[in-house]
Design goal:
106 residues; alpha+beta; 2 helices
Length: 106
C-alpha cells in the first residue's frame, strides 16, 4: 500500500511541475508568418522556400504539416546553408513576449 501511495505522490508532483521553455537555437531568426502557397512561406516581407525535410513545430512543440500553418503567426525560423527554411517554430504569446524582451524583432 505504501508503494502505491508513494507512486501516486510522485505522479502528482511530476504532473504539477510547470512546463519548461522550449530550447531554440541561438541563430534562429524571429519573424511574422503570413499565408503563402507551399512550398513557400512568407516571413515579414520575404518569401522563402521550405528546404526538403523541413520541420514545422506548433505551439506545443508537435511536428505539423505545412497545410496546418495558420494564416498569420509569430515564428522563429532557422535557415539552411542554401537559405531555405529548415526549421520553423510557431510561438505562443508568452514565448513571443520573452523573445521580444531578449531583443528579437518580429
Amino acid at each position: 500500500m505504501k508503494l502505491y501511495a508513494s507512486l501516486l505522490l510522485f505522479i502528482l508532483a511530476v504532473a504539477s511541475q510547470p512546463a519548461t521553455a522550449r530550447p531554440f537555437p541561438e541563430e534562429a531568426q524571429a519573424g511574422t508568418l503570413q499565408a503563402a502557397d507551399f512550398p513557400f512561406v512568407k516571413i515579414g516581407s520575404s518569401v522563402i522556400r521550405f528546404a526538403p525535410g523541413a520541420r514545422i513545430f506548433n505551439e506545443t512543440n508537435m511536428a505539423i504539416m505545412p497545410t496546418a500553418l495558420p494564416e498569420a503567426a509569430k515564428v522563429l525560423y532557422q535557415l539552411d546553408i542554401m537559405g531555405l527554411v529548415l526549421n520553423l517554430w510557431l510561438l505562443n504569446d508568452d514565448e513571443a513576449a520573452d523573445l521580444k524582451k531578449a531583443g528579437k524583432k518580429f
